[in-house]
Amino acid sequence: MKKIISIIACAGLLLNSACKKFIDVNHDPNNPTDVQEALILAPAELAISHSLYGGYAAVLSLHYTQAVALNQTLPNDGTYFLVNSQMDGDWGNLYTTCLNNLRILNDKAEKNGNYNYSAIAKILSAFCLGTGTDLWGDMPYSKAFQGASEFTPTYDPQEDIYKDIQALLDNAIADIGKNAANLPGSDDYIYGGDMGKWQRFAYTLKARYYMHLIKAPSYSASAQADLALAALQNGMQSNDDDFKFGYPGTAGNENPWNQTFLPGSTLVLSSYVVDSLKARNDPRLTIMVSPATTPDSAYGPYHGRQIGTQDIGSLESYSIPGPFYSAAGAYNYIVNYSEALFLNAEATLIKSGANAAQPVYQDAIKSHMQKLGVSDANISAYLSSRGILTDSNALRRIIEEKSIADFLSIENYTDWRRTGFPLLNPVPNALLPSIPRRFLYPEVEIISNPQPQQSAKLTDRLWWDAQ
User: Fold this and answer.
1) 158-164 long-range CB contacts below 8 Å, 24 or more apart?
2) Which residues does the chain have with pLDDT short of 50?
3) pLDDT of amino acid 378
């Protein structure tokens, strides 16, 4: 794999050339205004993995789902301290580095008849839009990316964004069937140009975004489940279909979680996550969680920090994610096959009840454990200990287990808001009476493109997050 630092430099070139038509009237021969599709795809994939799904917004979502804790004085992210300017970088990465460059990639690929590239651009655009709208709600899209003709684009309602997501995915699937030639290769760091996997990923995303709307106004949980189940028939089929980004692990080319949880970092795993795994005798504990460097005799080697506490403890006494997720050369698992199975289990529960959902739910747990290398005997023992799904416990069990399989994923924040599971309470010393249900709009956007939606508070609900 090429050096990650080289891809970041390439991303900068693309950013400069993308903005050039808006702000630079001089010709700079060192900054190309037209590059091949392959040179756009690689940095876009990196930005999605490294910044969008491994950056500050991702970490903030982990605070709200109580997966991580800061060993710092209060207030901090974990007690719901947030100001608008903290969102500037993630918003800029979403729009400028990701969506804008993906728009360039799509337009160029369509013009050149390279429909596999345009398909990937549409799939990644749908994914980025979905990530953004699930954090901020209404967003500029239909009037965005129009250059000097539209410097202050109005925000599209979230319902319209969701329709755009499904249209992008449908059009991407159609593009895949147009041309078997001009396949991506080493420039595609996700699937290596395997368009069958890209298609299965697109269908899985369709199912994800259908299920997000199970309690949206004027939407039926049953109808959304039907749509999701139909999409999943063509979705991910095994762990080999995982949507993941691999890192070489050399200096400057590390997995983002490796950098986030570096020894000496003040971010550690929370007691909520670690104690939950310990309480269930989950065999994944020793794989997902690293033992503390200097264990506290009162807690043992696996010990998370309690969120919201005033004291500052020794970093060496707390656990961080295990090497499977946080080694320098580990994969960043962005969307995995286990999620597809959990979506199937949840949709099956809605349509056919707990008994029908039981085998799918167990297959979902099994798929994640197998990926982590858990033995068959330990898998069987754990599945037996979790018991049988009933009408009263099924949704809770499905989402609890899904949150483990989606370890370090923003998706857990969306699942908590739309289902109420896992069960979470506001942390001690919180600045707000309830857990935040959205992100603040960035200060740079409020200044440059003032819109009425920007008055939203952390505790306001998104459109699909109905009571």
Assistant:
1) 158/133, 158/462, 158/463, 158/464, 159/216, 159/463, 159/464, 161/129, 161/133, 162/130, 162/133, 162/209, 162/212, 162/213, 162/464, 164/126, 164/129
2) 1-25
3) 98
User: Closest Cα partner for 247 from 36, 405, 54?
Assistant: 54
Coil, strand, or helix at residue 63? helix
- CA torsion, ordered 53, 59, 62, 63, to nearest 10 deg: -160
**153: DSSP letter:** P
* Start-end of CATH 1.25.40.390 domains in the chain: 1-66+77-193+436-455
Considering the domain 1-66+77-193+436-455 in this protein, what is its CATH number? 1.25.40.390
Structure tokens at 325: 């997720």
- The closest alpha carbon to 330, from 237, 401, 408, belongs to 408
Q: Which residues of 129-145 are buried (b: 16+ CB within 10 A; e: fewer)?
A: bbbbbbbbbbbbbeebb
CA distance 160 to 288: 38
Angle at Cα 196 formed by Cα 133 and Cα 193, nearest 5°?
A: 85
Q: Give the whole-angstrom CA distance, residue 437 versus residue 60.
A: 12
Cα distance between residue 406 and residue 387, in whole Å: 21
Tell me the pLDDT tens digit for each residue of 256-287: 999 999 877 899 999 999 999 999 999 999 99
Q: How far apart, in whole angstroms, are the C-alpha atoms of residue 301 and residue 289?
A: 10
pLDDT value at residue 150? 79
pLDDT at 5: 39
pLDDT tens for each residue of 131-161: 999 999 999 999 998 876 778 999 999 999 9
d(CA 209, CA 147): 29
Residues across the chain = 467
CA dist., res. 156 & res. 325, Å (int): 36
Contact 337, 242 (CB under 8 A): yes
- Residue 406: how many other CB atoms lie within 10 Å: 23
